[in-house]
């Protein structure tokens, strides 16, 4: 597996627009158009005008440009205002048309949704989401270092799987598990956490299950993860797949030797190691009476750095690769295509997050394929105008 874009991605991509279209196949566009037109006929009856791909692309361009212009909390009325707004929005479609599209856009048939929702809380977007995620590993091969972590899409509206995570900036939102390349932050796999099934018990060993599910298809990679995921059992299961693991571990893990937990008479910047045939555990003391624990199936010695803090190599490698998903958060935050009328729907919020990732992955693909130097916001601006194409295509 050669790191970088796959042959599947290299062949069709020659410019910004083709890179964007690589992530959204026509089958996904067809699902969106069919269900949006179905909802449009239900709401507006015979007054509804059928939408086609040109209309959808125009709507996409508005979302892209809203992200470029940092319109996250700006009202749509101000974007279309004749005096203080931006001409490109008015040239693309009227504000009324944008509101109509935002009202009726659908990703499934709402008439059959209740039955599907009994089994799947993500039923409203499941088909589109799965088809999009399935393409991610076809387009890009991650490098030898892979990060597994969680993201929180901020959302405070009604949602059956909204999570509260006090350590995240938004605190409330939709949690998404992510597997990404540690260096480029390309999202190789994604999974929305929808909570426990209706009437079901809380999931046991969830962290282990997530890593094993989401790294299927990887070989000869190292997985970096935090203490929610890492455990001795996970490390052994990954070794069976020819994968290694480096991660922090919680102090209550039963497999940890008591000698690593005892902090009496421990010197600052000292390390204690424990070994099995396949696994290394280190206890490092950065401060008096404080220690951090890491487990690795990649390292098999007691190597430490020559710097004053004498950090173990395990910690240095963990620190170098743990930020893959966090960096993805920072990059995507700059182009979040969120507008106020869309913010109250968990269905749209999740899809907008997908769309946000789409832009950033398109950017990463282009950097490898045909553009050496291009700022992400410049790409989005050019893409918004490119996808827009012929303007004024939507008429009320």
Automatic annotation (TrEMBL):
Domain of life per record: Eukaryota
InterPro entries assigned: PGBD
Transmembrane segments: 355-375
Keyword Oxidoreductase: no
Keywords tagged on the record: Membrane, Transmembrane, Transmembrane helix
Segments forming domain PiggyBac transposable element-derived protein: 19-341
Protein name: PiggyBac transposable element-derived protein domain-containing protein
